[in-house]
Amino acid sequence: MAAFSASPLTDMLIMQPTAFCNVDCGYCYLPNRTDKRRMSREVLEAVFSKLLPSRLIGERLAVVWHAGEPLVVPPGWYEDAIALAEAHRPPGGLIEHAFQSNGMLVDGGWVEFFKRAGRRISLSIDGPAWLHDRHRRTRAGQGTHARAVQGLRLLQAAGVAPAVITVLTRDSLGCADALFDFYAEHGISDVAFNVEELEGTHMTSSMAGASVEEAYRGFMRRFIARMRAAPEAMTLREWRDATAVLRFGVADGFNQEAEPLRIVSVARDGAVSTFSPELLGFRDERYDDFVFGNILVDPVETIIARVLSSRLRREIRSGLENCRRTCGWFAWCGGGSPSNKIFETGDPSATETAYCRLTRQALLDVVLSTLEEERAFTATRP
Ligand code: SF4
After folding, report:
1. Who contacts 116 (Cβ-Cβ below 8 Å, separation ≥6)?
2. What's the CA-to-centroid distance between 51 and ligand 1, angstroms?
3. For a surface tag, which of 113, 117, 234, 367 has the fewest beta carbons within 10 Å of its beta carbon?
4. 30-39 contact pairs (CB < 8 A, 24+)
5. 136 CB under 6 A from ligand 1?
6. Mind listing the pLDDT tens digit for each residue in 15-41?
């Protein structure tokens, strides 16, 4: 078994056990989400036996099971997959497994699975039922909130405390208090906000348009004010990340999605992609399918060489340089997400997107002004 590489490149491996999802959210961007096929054992074996001993992998690796609903595949399948990963793990290394799920299929078997060390689960819940069920519905049009919250409670009762990711739509932006109260009442202490994006198969967004930015700022200001008033109750990913970059800036290579092979995504059939995970499964006139090889047949070194010499890599890099030259936020943003640039403008060398205006510029503005107000308040205290 190979020792660790001295210059590791990959810190996140996205694995698509299946493209299938049991719900049909209004803002979902995933293609092929009715395809029920599972990743084969041959693909799992090829991924772990070829990637883990390769020069791509360092001492820690996060394996994220996503790009479909991972819990439609049973726990026993993952026990085999994790055992395979362990069999090929270089000595002394650490592999953590994370699952992003809608929570609807959590039962006693899954609870036992997630009680074991090194396995984490985050649930997608968009707040109270009247908000969540507007967009997160089954194919028959039924709301999914009750089952998602039931899954949350089962996990919490067993001592597993899932983080919750909420997708913000235009409907959410007047609901900062309702969301905060929902998380507090349900014992949710680790929260993250995504925004509805123009992405993949989802080519409209309620978060586009002139009035949204001000509404988003108002939402974040109010939510952060509630959170800061009760700091022991809840942490917010956006606050954590923004305060860290405002304090320390971003280092070269900070932008995980823009660095070749920092994130490696493997599709159900073994196709390998990199940069933003959202690119997996899409086609584009200029970049074809964003795939650089198949782990079943291609040596890892061939895949690395294709990525490093690709047009996509060159154009993502010029996007970073363009951001560095033109945007005052670059020192804290690091140049944004290639997938949002591609899906919004068709061009990874673009700079500003609707996505970065909200999740980078407006967010950093709100966090900065909150910190300034807190400092002024502290300074005037006796
Ligand atoms: S905020 Fe937008 S334009 Fe500015 S550096 Fe980030 S991605 Fe580029």
Report:
1. none
2. 32
3. 117
4. 30/67, 30/68, 30/200, 30/201, 30/281, 31/200, 31/201, 31/281, 31/282, 32/281, 33/68, 35/268, 36/72, 37/268, 38/73, 38/77, 38/268, 39/15, 39/268, 39/269, 39/270
5. no
6. 999 999 989 888 886 778 888 999 999
* Pocket test residue of 254, 276, 330 for ligand 1, highest count of atoms within 8 A of CB: 330
Summarised one tens digit per residue, pLDDT across range 152-195 is 999 999 999 999 999 999 999 999 999 999 999 999 999 999 99
| Residue ranges per structural domain of the chain | 10-248
Cβ-in-10-Å burial (0-12, 13-18, 19+) of 236 comes to buried
To test the ligand 1 pocket, which listed residue (256, 320, 325, 333) has its Cβ within 8 A of the most ligand atoms? 333
Residue 133 pLDDT > 60: yes
DSSP secondary structure letter of residue 288: B
CATH topology classification for 10-248:
TIM Barrel (3.20.20)
Report the pLDDT value the prediction gives residue 1, as an integer from 0 to 100: 38
For residue 255, CA distances in Å to 162, 323, 330, 336, 369 come to 26, 12, 11, 7, 24
Give 245 Cα–ligand 1 centroid separation in angstroms. 14
Q: Where residue 5 falls among pLDDT bands split at 50, 70, 90?
A: very low
Q: How far is the CA of 369 from the centre of ligand 1 (A)?
A: 19
pLDDT score at 298: 98
- Average pLDDT in the chain: 91
So what's the pLDDT on residue 118?
Answer: 85
Pocket flag, ligand 1, residue 258 (CB < 6 Å): no
Cα 337 to ligand 1 centre (Å): 9
Q: Choose the residue to mutate in 340, 352, 358, 365 for probing ligand 1, maximizing ligand atoms within 8 Å of C-beta.
A: 352
Contact 190, 163 (CB under 8 A): yes
Answer whether 327 contacts ligand 1 (Cβ < 6 A).
yes
Say whether pLDDT at 7 is over 90: no
CB 304 within 8 A of CB 261: yes
Residue with tokens 């509805």: 196
Q: The whole model's pTM is what?
A: 0.92
